[in-house]
Amino acid sequence: MTSTVSPALEQRIARVLSAGVGLRGDGESPASLKTDGVAGGTELIEPGGGAAGEGAEGGRGAEGVSTWIGLVAAWNARIDLTAARNEDELVDLMLADAVVLAAHLPQGKRVVDVGTGAGAPGLAVALLRQDLALTLVEPLQKRVSFLRNTIGALLQSGALKPGAGRAPFVERGRGEEVARRAPAFDVAISRATLAPGRWLDMGAALTAGAAAPEVWVLLAREEPPALTGWEVAEDLRYRWPLTGVERRAVRYLRRAPASTPGATSEG
Ligand SMILES: C[S@@+](CC[C@H](N)C(=O)[O-])C[C@H]1O[C@@H](n2cnc3c(N)ncnc32)[C@H](O)[C@@H]1O
C-alpha cells in the first residue's frame, strides 16, 4: 500500500515538526511545544536536518515522517491502528510527543519503545534521531506487520538511513517477556501501554544493565509515579500544537549508589 499525503496533512506535519525547533532552548519558542522542564539543556531539533532530520549518513527524517503518517492513514482504513478522529488529532498523536523526546534523548543510545502500536513514539523518534538504535516492542501481529512494512518502505526510499548501524528493529512480543531476557537498553520509552507505575518498574528492568539508564514516562496531567532508587531529572510540560492537549514527559535517572562509609577501593 502506498502513502499519499494531502497538502493539508503535509502542512499539519510541518507545523508539529517546526514546533520542535523551539525546543533548542534559545531564542523564540512556540508556546505549544515549549517545554518547561525542571532541568534545562535541551538539544537542538531541526526538522529536515541536524538531530531531528538527518542521520550521519543522510537519512531524510522529515520526509520519512510524512511517508509514515500517510501509511498510518491508509492502513487505518483496513486495520485498527489509531482512534484519531481527524487530521489534527492524527498528527499530534503520532508526532508531537516524539518531537519532544527527540530533542532530549542522549546521542547514540539503544532505545526500546514498549507497545509501539502504529509507531508512536518509537518509529517517529527513529526517524527524527537516526543516531539512535530503536527496538520497537509490539505483541499484535497486524501492528507488527504495519511497522515492518513501513520500515521497509522508509529504508527503500532512503528516508531512513540509521546512523547507529541498524534500522529500527521490530520485536513481536510483550514488554514483560523482553524484560525477562536481561536486555541491553540504555533508554526505555513507552506511551499509553501500561499504567505509569507499572511502566516505570518495567523500564527499570529493561535498562538494568546500562551504565547510565534512563526511563521516560509520558503522561497527560497526572502526577509522575515514584520509584525507589530513581529520581526525576526532567519534568517537561507542553501542549500538543494542533489540538492543545496538555502533556507531560518525565525523565527518570537511576541514582548513583550511596558510598559505604569507610569502604576502600581495595575492598
Ligand atoms: C493504546 S496502544 C498505544 C500505542 C502507541 N504507543 C501510542 O501511544 O499511540 C497500546 C499498545 O500497546 C500494546 N501492548 C499492550 N500490552 C503490552 C505489553 N504488555 N507489552 C508490549 N505491548 C503491549 C498493544 O498491542 C497496543 O498496540
TrEMBL record:
Coiled coil: none annotated. Its main location: cytoplasm. Residues 47-59 have a biased composition (Gly residues). SUPFAM superfamilies: S-adenosyl-L-methionine-dependent methyltransferases. S-adenosyl-L-methionine binds at G115, G175, E176, R191. InterPro entries: rRNA_ssu_MeTfrase_G, SAM-dependent_MTases_sf. The keyword Chaperone does not apply. Residues 27-59 are annotated as: Disordered. Its EC number is 2.1.1.-. Keywords: Cytoplasm, Methyltransferase, rRNA processing, S-adenosyl-L-methionine, Transferase. GO terms for molecular function: rRNA (guanine-N7-)-methyltransferase activity. It comes from the Bacteria. The keyword Repressor does not apply. It is found in: Cytoplasm. One of its GO terms (cellular component) is cytosol. PANTHER family: S-ADENOSYL-L-METHIONINE-DEPENDENT METHYLTRANSFERASES SUPERFAMILY PROTEIN. Belongs to the methyltransferase superfamily. RNA methyltransferase RsmG family. Specifically methylates the N7 position of a guanine in 16S rRNA. HAMAP family: 16SrRNA_methyltr_G (MF_00074). This is Ribosomal RNA small subunit methyltransferase G.
